Amino acid sequence: MSDALSAAPAKALLEVSHVSKRFVVGGQLSHRYVDAVVDANLVLSSDTSEVFTIIGESGSGKTTLARMILGLEHPTSGEIRFEGRSSAERRSRADRLAFMRRVQPVFQNPFETFNPLKRVDRYLSSTARTLLGVKTRAATAAAMDDALHKVGLSLKEVAGRYAHELSGGQLQRVAIARALIPNPSLIIADEPVSMVDASLRMSIVNLLRALRDEFGVSVIYITHDLATAYYISDRLVIMQKGYVVEMGPARIVLDTPEHPYSRLLKESVLSVDDAGAGTLAPADRSEAMAAWEQPGAGSLQERSDGRFVRV
Hints:
Blueprint: H1 3-6, E1 12-26, E2 31-45, E3 51-55, H2 62-70, E4 77-82, E5 85-86, H3 93-102, E6 103-106, H4 110-113, H5 120-132, H6 137-150, H7 155-158, H8 168-180, E7 186-190, H9 198-215, E8 218-223, H10 226-232, E9 235-240, E10 243-249, H11 250-255, H12 260-267, H13 286-290, E11 300-302, E12 308-310
Parallel strand pairs: 3-8, 3-9, 6-7, 7-8
Antiparallel strand pairs: 1-2, 1-4, 4-5, 9-10, 10-12, 11-12
């Protein structure tokens, strides 16, 4: 593997170095191994905030990789370092809380994130007390209101309300506001628009971009949607069956994808050019599948345009 791929900048926010995750499926008498992530590498700099996107279909390993970064899964091999400290070193509650102040998740379905029997503002106040250490009601309310204003809401709008009393878009904004309360440097957003109405998706995507541009927060954006990835991403990786097959500057990779699977993803996006002409046909998967008769064959090679491609 090229040294340029795994080399960390002088001030690395996040370093994922040769990380793999293997699950055991089945019982003691009959089991098999599933390699969910294989030898993943990525680096985010602390000098510049960015939206770093992980793209792949279901089963590609993108969510497993995100869960390892969050500390919800432990790598089978390799190392994940955040601000220079290995995830293996976070053993105490104090260590975990310190990490949570700096790294926050936003999950796919906001209606599963919030208990329907619990008022949503209680999640916000709990985060403020636990991660910010605020003691008084006034300080708690101020922290909640400040975070909500960053996402276009206010405490007055959500106080005392339950999840079912808010729209999907509003509730996802509350989830993002909760993540912003401790002023994190990194947010990991796992399919944050997939459960939101199409008419509201761009408002969430624009909000993630604003976190980068206005508040200096880096975002790891996990998706299978190439359109939003193209719109929001600075850099991206494309994963298939646990392997990174292509990575680099977002526009370069998505404008002219090189790996067969990357090309398949782009060709699978519906176009309006032939709308109503009766020519809609599924993309040809043969080339992409042929490249994966031996999973993991080849290695990531650097190209002159800054991308890496598995060949």
